[in-house]
Design brief:
By secondary structure, this protein is α/β, with parallel strands linked by helices. It has a single domain, classed as Alpha-Beta Barrel (TIM Barrel). It has 16 helices and 14 strands. The strands form 4 sheets. It has an 8-stranded parallel beta barrel with strand order 1-2-3-4-5-7-11-12, surrounded by 4 helices. A two-stranded parallel ribbon has the order 6-8. A two-stranded antiparallel ribbon has the order 9-10. It is globular and about 70 Å long. It starts with 27 loop residues before the first strand and ends in a 9-residue tail after the last helix. Belongs to the glycosyl hydrolase 1 family.
Length: 519
């Protein structure tokens, strides 16, 4: 793959499966989280407010309309800015990774991880986004973190923008609807890539970039407002998305220029759609829905917009403004690998009213009668992951990377902390066999996909530590293999407690997947 200025490194291909274990040699076993959900320290180290810092805690009710929980109005932002502390805004505290990062890295090393998929908080580097100079305290924080990770044999897989941008760019520029933000991001990308050359070998540009269409505030910093008469309300999201594609191409070019040994990937929330029936109309609808999910990776991997989305724009009267040279830039700066999240499959029908609904990642879907659902109403579909891997490999023929997959559940902490009056033993435990079962069933299908011929770089389970939910800003919905002792209000010791899944994942990494045959 080449850029318009230099030849980039080719994404590493693991050795054939079965050489030393159940998965390829060099397979990157890891965990994943986002800065805005785990880091905390929202007012420390020179950090500015981000778009995530003003999202309040919300009660999700029946959890069906997830995207509605991720919107923030002008009035809510004003209230949040006037609220100086963390009360009511859990992402400001996160899991206090900012204060516990050294301990957490030691835990990751104890697990035997080879990768940590994480993100940089843009507002920790450029507090307002348009600052003339970066914040040195923020740069040094990540430099120390990446250095320690590499010393422990852990590769940081770093997302440049994961559901957050400096709030100033949201309120003063309109988020990614503004072309000016592309330039601010280009400066940010050049700053971090230049600073961390040799420390970061795997970069991702935007997390789940399709979210900008599904929920434009979270994905693109676009505050939902009434559009001008005759303007499709989705137009702002598509315009913001185009600017992100341009920014991603510029960032890809920067990485290839400054650090040819590094690799760049895009990141998609893969929402695979099954037809609700064998009715050809349902099949065509599912095909359309899949293509509308995959047009994002068409742009970033193939370097061009698909016919599906261009026709959709024409049919809906949506106009996306592109500057001269944009399409050439996209074509010349495609990514080295494709990363994605997978939590569930969806169902499509031309007559959805005939079917019941269930919850999902970012939005609801028709209930699939052949699949069980999780506590939050998400379809439990391990075989769907094998299908997705084969589908993406057949379509793109570039290395793939699963950077999010995991189970959110209400974990129960049993036992008590160290009691100095007795024997000093910490008896706290979390018995999460259900999470281990989730991993086993999904990873067995991943192994099948590798045997099918899919080139897969690694797997980073979401979310390593317990994190603040992206949608509801709750801690109760726990994803980690490490328990964080804090509740939805931020009350707790923030102690780290190894769950049963921690020890299982440790064995998974040590055996390169062979433990899957023992479960």
């Amino acid at each position: 793959m080449t850029t318009d200025t230099t030849t980039s490194a080719t994404a590493t291909e693991p050795s054939p499966a079965g050489t030393t274990g159940a998965f390829p040699d060099g397979f990157l076993w890891g965990v994943a989280f986002a800065a805005n959900q785990v880091e905390g320290g929202f007012d420390q180290g020179g950090k500015g407010l981000s778009q995530a810092d003003v999202i309040p805690y919300r009660t999700a009710g029946d959890y069906v309309d997830i995207s509605a929980l991720m919107k923030v109005s002008d009035a809510e932002i004003a209230t949040a800015v006037a609220s100086p502390g963390t009360a009511g805004y859990p992402k400001r505290s996160g899991s206090d990774f900012f204060g516990h990062w050294e301990e957490d890295v030691d835990l990751f090393a104890e697990m035997g991880l080879k990768a940590l998929r994480m993100s940089i908080a843009w507002s920790r580097i450029f507090p307002n986004g348009n600052d003339a100079e970066p914040n040195e305290e923020g740069l040094l924080f990540y430099e120390r973190l990446f250095t320690r990770l590499r010393e422990k044999g852990i590769d940081p897989v770093v997302t440049m923008s994961h559901y957050e941008m400096p709030l100033h760019l949201v309120t003063e520029y309109g988020g990614w609807t503004s072309r000016e933000v592309v330039g601010f991001f280009e400066r940010y990308a050049r700053t971090i890539v230049g600073r961390y050359t040799g420390l970061v070998r795997y970069w991702l540009t935007f997390n789940e970039i399709n979210t900008t269409i599904i929920e434009s505030y979270t994905g693109g910093g676009v505050i939902e407002r009434e559009p001008a008469p005759g303007v499709d309300p989705r137009q702002a999201g598509y315009q913001a998305l185009h600017h992100q594609f341009v920014a991603s191409a510029l960032a890809t070019r920067i990485v290839h220029e400054l650090d040819p040994a590094a690799q760049v990937g895009c990141m998609l929330a893969r929402m695979s759609h099954y037809p609700a029936s064998s009715d050809p109309a349902d099949i065509v609808k599912a095909q359309f829905d899949n293509n509308m999910n995959l047009f994002h990776t068409d742009v970033q991997v193939r370097g061009r917009y698909s016919g599906t989305v261009r026709r959709f724009w024409r049919d809906q009267g949506i106009t996306v403004v592109m500057e001269p040279g944009d399409e050439e830039l996209l074509a010349a700066n495609t990514v080295d690998f494709l990363s994605f999240s997978y939590y569930m499959s969806l169902v499509s029908s031309v007559s959805p009213e005939k079917y019941g609904a269930t919850g999902g990642n970012l939005f609801s879907t028709i209930k699939n009668p052949y699949l069980a659902t999780t506590e939050w109403g998400w379809h439990f579909d391990p075989e769907g992951l094998r299908y997705v891997l084969n589908d993406l490999w057949d379509r793109y023929q570039v290395p793939l990377f699963i950077v999010e997959n995991g189970l959110g559940a209400t974990d129960v902490l049993e036992g008590s902390a160290v009691d100095a009056a007795h024997d000093g033993t910490d008896t706290r435990r979390v018995h999460d066999d259900y999470r281990i079962d989730y991993y086993v069933k999904h990873l067995r299908e991943v192994r099948e996909a590798i045997a099918d011929g899919v080139n897969l770089l690694g797997y980073t389970a979401w979310g390593g530590l317990d994190i603040i939910s992206a949608s509801t800003s709750q801690m109760t919905k726990r994803y980690g293999v490490i328990y964080v002792d804090a509740d939805d209000t931020g009350t707790g010791s923030y102690d780290r407690v190894r769950k049963d899944s921690f020890y299982w994942y440790q064995k998974l990494a040590a055996t390169n997947g062979a433990v899957l045959d023992e479960a």
